[in-house]
Amino acid sequence: MKPIRVWLTPTIPNPWKVVLVLDELHVPYEILAFRFDDIKRPPFITLNPNASVPAIEDPNTGVVLWESGAIVTYIIEQYDKDFNLTYPEERLQDKHALNQWLHFQMSLQGPFFHQAGWFNYLHPEKITSVQDRFNNECKRQLGVLNGVLEGKDWLVGEKMTYADLAFVPWNDILHQCVPMTLEDRFKDFPNVKAWHERMTARDSWKKLGEVRKKAMEEQDLDWTGMPRGISSYSDYLDKIANGEDTRAKE
């Protein structure tokens, strides 16, 4: 099997759920990590006119896809023939409950965590009511997950599935979205904490962490996604628009 090409920018969480699923299924993949500066330029913009990561190219089937949830669904349908991360048709409720949780992650967790991070750390104007709105919604979602996980290890059924894995990348940077310490991010959500730690203890997540760290170092990136030495997102965008080299200067 030829490796699936995964296009990503290192600090954005959504691509890593795709990588996580591929790794758990032992599907060969190749990461093409590029700078955010180039997200609206060829070759990436020709793959995804929406200019967002991830996108994949599967040379085994000729399929090109963007949007992380669509990609995960494709990978599961195409490559999880042994139902390692999903359930078969005879478990209809469980099979579709997984899709339900993937949609929850895509429509709520990802967007709201992202907006919380934006208004807390990157937006030039601090608007308390907006920050509170997104911070409280992130915590509300964690409360939903905490309640559903009461008395069980996984969201659906008796095993870890793609629905569980989809939540890991954003949950792992909760403290970079909502102001709190790393140690306190799940203090009010013990079931979420245990669930998250079950998955981050796996070899697939540890491997992903090393790959992500290396890609960030190679691109001189801070945790905000901006190159080291750039103080504001507006400055970063201005430099990109002007065609300037945004790499950190030693």
Kindly summarize this structure in a few lines.
This protein is α+β, with helices and mostly antiparallel strands. The chain is 50% helix and 7% strand.
Task: Please explain how this structure is put together.
With 250 residues, the protein is α+β, with helices and mostly antiparallel strands. Helix content is 50%, strand content 7%. It contains 10 helices and 4 strands, in the order E-H-E-H-E-E-H-H-H-H-H-H-H-H. Strands 2-1-3-4 form a 4-stranded mixed beta sheet, with helices on one face. The N and C termini lie far apart (42 Å). The model has no long low-confidence stretch (mean pLDDT 95).
- Which stretches of 5+ consecutive residues score pLDDT under 50? none
**Strand tally, please?**
4
Total helical segments: 10
- Summarize the biggest pleated sheet: 4 strands, mixed
Could you report the average pLDDT, rounded to the nearest whole number? 95
Using the CA coordinates, give the radius of gyration: 18 Å
Q: Secondary-structure element order, as H and E? A: EHEHEEHHHHHHHH
The computed structural class is alpha+beta
Task: Give, in spatial order, the strands making up the sheet with the most strands.
Answer: 2-1-3-4
Which helices and strands occur, and which strands form pairs?
Blueprint: E1 4-8, H1 14-24, E2 29-33, H2 44-47, E3 55-58, E4 63-66, H3 68-79, H4 92-122, H5 128-148, H6 162-166, H7 168-172, H8 190-200, H9 203-218, H10 233-241
Parallel strand pairs: 1-2
Antiparallel strand pairs: 1-3, 3-4
